[in-house]
Amino acid sequence: MRPMGRRNLHTREQQRDMAIAAAELILVREGIDELSMRKVAQAIGYTVGNLYLLFQNQDDLLAALNERTADAIYLSLRDRIEPLDDPRERLGAMARGYIEFATGNPHRWRLLFEHQLPEEMKPRPSADARIRRLFELVEATLAMLEPRLKAESLRLRATTFWGGIHGICSLAVSGKLSWGGRSSDYRLYCEEMIAAFFGAASSRAKAVRRS
């Protein structure tokens, strides 16, 4: 059977899901440089032309794949912190989970943060909402630690903290943590980051009580 004959076997939504799943598998196995519309079409048994009925272009497919990755990270972190009440434990669980995902899925993680959409395809609200949802997990935990913080300050603090964790993550994925002397022990770096952050939070709380 020719690939075109498959068109009526699946709904448009099913075809999109198949294409995104196939793209993810190619990305994981072969890396971003080997990912192409042609390979995705071959993997799902459709023509390249049919893919362009589902996605505007390859950037659109990669953006959809990134949304799938962002969902996976969010669900992983949410499930880790759900049974935890202590804010420090929650931050530690999120930090470790984030880095474990990145080091276990380096191609997916790199694509999520390194792929840039052309200007004519911005903004992409569905992608922005997913990244915002990740930060809201951090904000909710920091609000437990400093409940009096205004929303703007809370967002700034969450961005600052997670920016540090993201930096550790980037170094871990690129193999550049060796200068720290414990290249594979990213948990140590996370704990140092969290300890410093909690120390600063404690100092701020004491200053507020004295004022």
Automatic annotation (TrEMBL):
Residue ranges flagged as DNA-binding region: 36-55
Keyword annotations from UniProtKB, A to Z: DNA-binding, Transcription, Transcription regulation
Transmembrane regions: none
Organism: Solimonas fluminis
A UniProt-annotated Pfam family: TetR_C_33
Entries under InterPro entries matching the protein: Homeodomain-like_sf, HTH-type_TetR-like_transc_reg, HTH_TetR, MT1864/Rv1816-like_C, Tet_transcr_reg_TetR-rel_C_sf
Name used for this protein in its record: TetR/AcrR family transcriptional regulator
Every HTH tetR-type domain range: 13-73
Coiled coil (residue ranges): none
GO molecular function: DNA-binding transcription factor activity; transcription cis-regulatory region binding
